[in-house]
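Table S2 (continued). Query chain:
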Amino acid sequence: MSYAWVRALALTLGVIGVALPAARASTAGGGANAMGGNDYAYPYFNKHHPVRAVLKVPSNPALWPAVPLVITHNLVSLMGHGIPTKVVLIAPGPAIYFFVQKKNPQAAKLLERLHEMGVRMLACHAAMLAFHVKKSQFFPFVGVARPSGVTSIFKYEAKGYVYYNMP
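Corresponding output:
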C-alpha cells in the first residue's frame, strides 16, 4: 500500500521537513513497519472482517464537542489504511440531548458528515420516554435504540462490536 498521499499532504501542510517512506515495508523481526506501526493487524481486516465499534456518548455536555472529533479522527485513520469500519454511536440516558437539534446545534454539520461516512447514531428509547423527547426533535439521521441504549450496546457487543466509552 502506497503512502504517497500522506507524504504529499504532510509536505503540503509543512508538517514535516522530510519525506516519509514511500511504502509500508516490514522490517525484519517484530513486525514494525517503516511508518512505525504494526503490520500484523492489517491483513486481518477486510470486507469480511471490518473494524466494528460501538461508542457511548458521555452524559456530561461539556464533553460533547470532542465526540465527533474523536470519531472522525479514528475513521479517517482507519480509512487511510484501507480498513473497512462499522461504527455505532449510542446516546443512553441524558446523553440523548446530544442528538436534539435545539440543544446541540453546533454539532449538526459534524454529525451529518459522520452519518455520510457510515456512522449509525441511536438515541435511547427508555430515556426518550423518561425525558419526554420525541424522535422528531432529533437530527433526521438519528435512529432509536430499543428497548434502551445500554441494552443496544450489549446487543452490538454480542455481534462482535468493541465497546468504547467516550471520555
